[in-house]
Each structure stands twice: as structure tokens, then as C-alpha cells.
Amino acid sequence: MITINKLKIKEINTFVTLNIYEGITYISGKNGSGKTLFLDYISKIRKAKTKNISGNTNMIYMRQNFSFYNRIRVKEFIKFVYNLCEENYINFYSFLKRHHISIDIEKIKNTKMGMLSGGERKLIYILTILSLQRDWYILDEPFVNIDKETKKEIINLILQLKKENRNFILTNHDDLPYLLEHVDYVINFEEVKVHF
């Protein structure tokens, strides 16, 4: 469980107090409501001045905005992320095989990231993140630029990983009925904020 106790998000003049339990948690809210700022604090990208958050260890954060050097090849991107996390990138390929992911990685592994479509880049990004061994995955807008069929495949992958005791915090601006059918908790971010 991740516990947030009177977290001050100064950028939006708000305090947040809540618990995020194991499983899949969906955070809803309007554009500009502060969801991404909140996730930045949970993931430790932004530092809280006091110890307001506990349980936020062994996690990885997929930010909604993905920009990366366009001339790097897909396989180099995967290796780069794995090197940052001090893991062997070969695990990525075994992850795809183990979970029966329908992407033809052999076909695109030598393609430069800038030559992929926005959806293909996003898919490589999310699959790389999900292939890393973590207890918690924070996914901010993971389905942007992803086609309907691939969204469903990613949701099914998340459900498989949940069975392996992995936990998820997700945001999404489009209501995805298939996703909402499978989440364990829904948090309306507007309802947990207290303005100061």
C-alpha cells in the first residue's frame, strides 16, 4: 500500500491524503487538475518537503509525454532503459515471448525511433516499462496514440501482470470501458484534493 498523508502540491495549492491499495487503481480527473503532478510526487520525480508518502518503493513511472532521441534504434532504446535500471535487456525479449505479445520486434528492432508511428513508439515505451520487474507501475496516459485493439492487448497484459503481484496506478483522459471493468479502485482526483 502507498500512503499519502497531507502531501502539499504547491503548484495547485492543494493537500492530498489517501491510500492506494495493491491492485489496479485508476485516477480520474479533468485536464489540468494536477493528476500528473501528483504522480510526479508519488514517483519521487518531484520531492515533497516532508515525509508525506510511504510505500512508494520499487516502482517505475511512465510519464505521459514521451520524447526521446529520434535517431536511436528501437533495440538501442530498450538497451538504454535496461542499463539505467541495471537489468539485462534480454529480459525484454523473453517478456514478449512469455506474455504472447503480438508485436514483431524482430522487424522493427533496427528501425530508428523517429521512423516509427506515434502509436508504435508509445507501444515500445509501455512494453519496455512493463517488462521491467517492479512492484508498482505508474502509467500516466498510457493509451494515447494507441489503437483500440492494442489498448485491449495492453490492458490484458496489465491484468496478467497483476496476477504476478504487480500493482498499477493509471490515468487516462478517455474512459475505456474495458479498462474500467477490470480496475480494483477508482479515485476521483477532484474529490481527494483539499485547497489551502
Explained architecture:
This protein is of the alpha/beta class and 196 residues long. It has one domain (2-195): Rossmann fold (3-Layer(aba) Sandwich), CATH 3.40.50.300. The chain is built from eight helices and nine strands. It has helices at residues 35-42, 74-84, 90-98, 105-108, 118-131, 148-163, 177-182, 189-192; strands spanning 2-9, 14-20, 24-28, 53-54, 59-62, 136-140, 167-171, 185-188, 193-195. It has a five-stranded parallel sheet, with helices on both faces. Strands 4-1-2-9 form a four-stranded antiparallel sheet. α2 packs parallel to α5. It is globular. The relative contact order is 0.23.
What labels would you give this structure?
Rossmann fold, single chain, alpha/beta, 4-stranded antiparallel sheet, ATP binding, ABC_transporter-like_ATP-bd, P-loop_NTPase, 5-stranded parallel sheet, ATP hydrolysis activity, 196 residues, 8 helices, 9 strands, Metal_Ion_Import_ABC, 22% strand
Q: State mean pLDDT (0 to 100 scale).
A: 91
CATH homologous superfamily title: P-loop containing nucleotide triphosphate hydrolases
As residue ranges, the low-confidence spans are none
The largest pleated sheet is described as:
5 strands, parallel
Report how far apart the termini are: 26 Å
| Count of separate structural domains | 1
Tell me the number of helical segments per DSSP (H or I, 4 or more residues long): 8
CATH architecture: 3-Layer(aba) Sandwich
Can you count the beta strands? 9
The CATH class name reads Alpha Beta
- CATH-defined fold name: Rossmann fold
Q: How would you write the strand order of the largest sheet?
A: 5-6-7-3-8
- Percentage of residues in strands: 15-25%
Radius of gyration computed on alpha carbons = 17 Å
Approximate shape: globular
- Helicity range: 25-40%
Order of helices and strands: EEEHEEHHHHEHEHEHE
**Pairing-aware structural class of the strands and helices?**
alpha/beta
